[in-house]
Amino acid sequence: MLYREAGQFKTTYAADQAIFPIAQDKWVVIAFAAIAFIAVPFLVNDYWTNAVFLPLLIYGLAALGLNILVGYCGQISLGTGGFMAVGAFASYKLMTSFPELNIVFVVLLSGGITALVGVMFGLPSLRIKGFYLAVATLAAQFFLIWLFNKVGWFYNYSATGQISAPDRAIFGLTVTGPTALPWVKYLFCLGFLAFFALVAKNVVRGRIGRNWMAIRDMDIAAELIGVRPLQTKLSAFAFSSFYVGMAGSLLFAVYLGAVEVTEAFSINVSFLVLFMVIIGGLGSILGSFLGATFLVLMPIMLKNAMVDGMGLLPVFAKHVEIMLMGLLIIFFLIVEPHGLARLWQITKEKLRLWPFPY
Amino acid sequence: MNAHVQPQPVPGSGIARGDVLLQVDNVSLSFGGVKAITNISFDIRKGEIRAIIGPNGAGKTSMLNVINGFYHPQEGTITWRGEKRRKMKPYEAASQGIARTFQNVALFRGMTTLDNIMTGRGLKMKKSFFWQCLHWGPALTEEIEHRRRVEEIIDFLEIQAIRKTPVGRLPYGLQKRVELARALAMEPDLLLLDEPMAGMNLEEKEDMSRFILDVNQQFGTTIALIEHDMGVVMDLSDRVVVLDYGRKIADGPPEEVQANQDVIDAYLGVPHG
Lengths: 358, 273
Fold this sequence. Notes:
The structure holds 2 protein chains of 2 kinds.
Chain A lengths: L12 H4 L6 H21 L2 H27 L7 H18 L5 H20 L7 H21 L12 E2 L4 E2 L2 E2 L7 H23 L2 H11 L1 H6 L4 H28 L1 E2 L1 H4 L2 H14 L4 H25 L4 H22 L4 H14 L5
Antiparallel strand pairs in A: 1-4, 2-3
Chain B lengths: L19 E12 L2 E12 L3 E5 L6 H8 L7 E6 L2 E2 L5 H6 L2 E4 L11 H8 L8 H6 L3 H19 L15 H14 L4 E5 L7 H18 L2 E5 L3 H7 L2 E6 L2 E6 L1 H6 L1 H8 L5
Parallel strand pairs in B: 3-8, 3-9, 6-7, 7-8
Antiparallel strand pairs in B: 1-2, 1-4, 4-5, 9-10
Helix pairs in contact in B: 3-6
GO molecular function (chain B): ATP binding; ATP hydrolysis activity
GO cellular component, one term (chain B): plasma membrane
Keywords (chain B): ATP-binding, Nucleotide-binding, Transport
């Protein structure tokens, strides 16, 4: 009843091709954005920002980036952790070498540098496909982590090998470093995510996005209708790595503040982001967010329920949490192998007919 | 039914209707020791429907693959619009105006009908990455302009109802039609159809034949057609080339080919003894 498009007639192709052709969708998203931008900043405290919102936003951005590569262009990558490390170390070097550089440009440039590295490691994709490409990108993961661990120049020869973010401000508000306020960090990351989610949506519904999907679905046919395979694949690697690099940069500079490369950007991060994409829904912008939300929030909710609700020991709860997460992932993949986004789509289709499905 | 589609000027400037559009000279193609095509020459003239027929394994599909740059023949030359063609990649052939459909449907299954056909317009869309990111201004204008062209093709092939359906969900006959639509969206000079009617029932075949004739007449597209249904081939095509075991055994108007003893032998077999 509520969700029905009857009476919404499109008279132009522009209206038909709008991001949200159905009015209800548009209003829900606008309301959601308004809450996120206007209401939440007044409500967040340190706990909510650091435990919930920042990981959610940052991993959302990383998942979005990886989804472009895996979900839209069909090139499997296991190098996400390594590429995030590139973003983090790029922003560290930029922040320490050019103290005057605005933090926004630091994040953007880190993304750009990661894009270049991504293209380099994307080169094998022209020759190898599927699982074999996954193995090749795994090499990126190990090589990059080794590099940042081994070569002192990247961490300015600090004794611990750690990198830590100096204070940087935007409009007089400190964004990075220990003095930054929770709501400033939150809004900074949210701004990046919202803007680049819009950009991603625009790109995937245009010519470039269609070319990516064509390569994903049938690369030979794509080539025969004029899609250049090398250019298209590399542009997906670049675009995806740009997002992943920005996520790495934000993770280091805004969220963690100080990182040790083998801990923060290990292979586990690559898998985590890949799982977000798979569970959320391959080839869906919304799916990236759903997947990130699921994998970031669910452990926290389970932990809260078990430790605070049932009074279990935290150590014991942690083990149960890991098992429950595994179960939930299996459950959701059995219910809908195409991810949460597809589940949502089916719900919408049913809602359209509700309450008279026949 | 297609009254609103204006007959368009024949594409491929400089070549008049009836002149040679594509010339294949002494082409041989082999994979290791297997000779797929041996010393074949024929031409395709602007505006005609040229059928390529032959028994299974005769090298018909290999011939199409050679024409659109997917295979590179070891010997022989291909002359396209009066220019000898160098070794090229398939997307280069596509950008020069050669489009094609496949024997087994090669659509982008995860995309909607509309997106599939829009992908065919990709070569004609030029707006830069920057504008694509904004999806506004010139990029939006371009997108809508091409959407309009795509809608014309959708109307032409009568697939309005499945515009927003993912092609993976469509029945086979419609998938074939969407594939034709995608090829047409490229506005090709030469359209290669590899068994457009394979696996169709009589009615679907009749529809498809009508579409092929309409494409040829209204858009002025030159068509090279591979087909096993002899009735269709004889009715549609202007000239027929017959291949058998990678060799050309006949070339000419349908009636002439039909009466050719070599062709009859190739199809029916020759008694040995």
